[in-house]
Amino acid sequence: MTDTLSKIEKRTAYTLLLPAVFLVFAIVLFPIFANIWISFKEVQLKDIRIPEPRAKKIVKIIPEDKSKLRIVYRLRNSSLIQDINNIKFSDRLPINIEPVDLDSRCEFKSKKIICNFGNWEAGYKENFEILIQNTINKEIDNKVIKDQKPKLSGDADNILLTTKFTLKNFKNVFNENEFLDLLLTTFYFTFFGTIGAIIFGMFAAQLVNQKFYGRTFMRSILLFPYVGPVVALAYTWTLMLDPNSGTLNALLVNFGIIDKPINLLGQKYLILSLFGFEIKLRLALTTVIMFEIWRYFPLAFLFILARLQAVPKDLYEAAEVDGAGPFRKFINITLPQITAILSILFMIRFIWNFNKFEDIFLLTGGASGTRTLPINVYQQGFAVSNIGMGSAVSIVIVMLLIIFMIIYFKLIGKRADEV
Amino acid sequence: MKYKPLFIYLFISSVFLTLVSSIWKIMATLQGLKLTEINLNINFLLALFLSLAFILIGKKFNHLIKIVILSLIFTFFYILINEGAPIWYNIGILLICLFFTNRLKNYDLNFLREDFISEKIIFDFLSLFAIVFFAFVILFPFYLMFVTSFKTQAALLFDPLDLSISLTNNLTETFKSYFVIFNTYDFGRYIYTSSIVSIGTVIITLIFAIPAAYAVARLNFFGKTFLSTSILIIYMFPAIVLVIPLYTVFSQLGLRNSIEGLLIVYTATTLPVAIYMLQGYFKSIPKEIEDAGLMDGQNWFGIIIKIIIPLSLPAIASVALYVFMIAWNEFLFSLMFLDNPKTFTLSRAINHLTGDAETPRQYLMAGSVVVTLPILLIFVYFEKYLVSGLTAGSVKG
User: Fold this and answer.
1) A5: distance to nearest CA of chain B, Å?
2) The pTM is what?
3) How many domains does chain B have?
4) Which end of chain A is more exposed for a tag (fewer CB within 10 A), N or C?
5) Residues of A in contact with B332 (CB under 8 A)
């Protein structure tokens, strides 16, 4: 009895889960593994379209004889790099209409012109002509003929499914002089973006945790940067920071703080001299990090505020009795209470900033020293059109991610009880 | 008398007053006022005198009389020192001053003798300044976006500092950018596509996620622990590593440039978090209620429809709003999959506008307002639900 019940339960569970699990497997897990396959292939963007035979039908009227029509098919191989084999062609003719002197590759059978064109090499083109006539000498309606579309089929190799593999992509990824720079940029971006967002989030949470007039309003607007669409916000920032007519530069020049507008998103280095030392600041990267902090501190704020509101009030009262000032209270009570959430936030945000694509792409497109690993996936895959290379970079990202996740779950496993 | 708290008070309060009046000056400049000097030093001295006078007078007078007189004196000197500005600007200075002195109500020489007074002063002013700072930093880009969309190209190039909205122009002139993006750039269609995609994603995600979450929360089956951990892990994988394989497969299947393709991808990428959020809530529903349903002869379908869904409407609302927000704001997949203007979503359409360097920026900003406004309104209206959705789902973002 219990056996059958648990069996029913199991079957129900699998039925309920199947649609969701199938979809996630197909769209999320499959691509991660497909990346491995593609990264070992030499594939360009233009290769991924399967070559197909195409025909454009043109009907030409013969003015002297209305009972005849000339049809021209412009035949071509859609691919410029791959052959197509075993091409079959068919086109239907209306009743009482027959072709005259049909090409030897074709035959007329049950109102259909059927042709066997054999093989077309890459870039093949041909103008294929047929003369048709009405068997009862009436005028042919050329509209009917025009509306009938020819059918073509052929076999071509799908370059993604062949078993030719190469290590070239990975060699290129790691041999690139820029790989180290790429990795370093990604880590700068990730690390400072994460730390900055957490620090600002902590300040904001500390602030909203007090009572003041307009507190609910403040809590709402603090989340605006996170809720707003990245496209709109990134372009607004681009506009604000524009060197020619941006507000920020205009303000700084107006108040005489700088002499010349600074291209905050387009200049790779800014040379600062502090106490006789020359510091090379990566300007565009810093600006992008600022945007990142601005957009994601609300999230840290939300988490930390939730934690702060759960801290028992009597802890602070006890501290007050013991004669602790606001600073001591923050260091000795608030901070220990929120370290757990801070470390979790750091890990999660670190992983997510590491993968951040849209923000950098929209602000700088990866120029002026802001090229991170995710940007490189896009550039290799779609700007250089080398799908194989793009996949190889994706694999590098996945590998690093797995390492981060192992660390994350080890740390969280220990911390889970404290949260 | 310890002098340390006095000095800290004088320094901090002067810095604060100087900063706030400078922010006011910057904002006034952005309304088209031609102010070119910040005069930090002299304004700091002025603020210092005000703070000193305030603390020395102490509680000898009525508070109200005291702050009005002090503010008037401060404003008078401020006008003398700083260049000529219109009356509304100076009234602003007076109001800032009143606000500031009113804030100092408790402060007199006795107050400065309290324990930990230096720290208290620092915390007090720091949080006051933080309110101004955060509000300014967050709202400014939104304000800029909004105002730019009402400007003309000529006005923008002539004076990038003039961010005032002129009310004297006629309405068609002011809303010109909006007319243009709807008539010339076909934004009506994009709004429609974006709404269909976002709402469609929400519906399909819920249809798939509710049964799955119920199974994970309630039923026993082989591989349950594995499944619930892998939901989280899968969720951690970013869109950028999925993009190339999906692009190739979708190209070959002819799913690019189609709304169906976007719906499939959006649903699949939001499903893990939806399941994760819902199953947590389902677990909190007492099992006895379901047992009662079982007694009545309901099958799992009846239980989900008649018991689980009505009881977890708040959680479902959170998930729906969160998924809607993700789908509405999504950019990467729409960039990759859509290159036919007929299938563009709003985000993709705005990105497409920038592809042409000639596109005037006020059109770009009008488009940005069109994409931002709905999501902000939804957020403000449903804040409670969306915030709990964000907290639960924001391992991603």
Assistant:
1) 11
2) 0.86
3) 2
4) N
5) 357-358
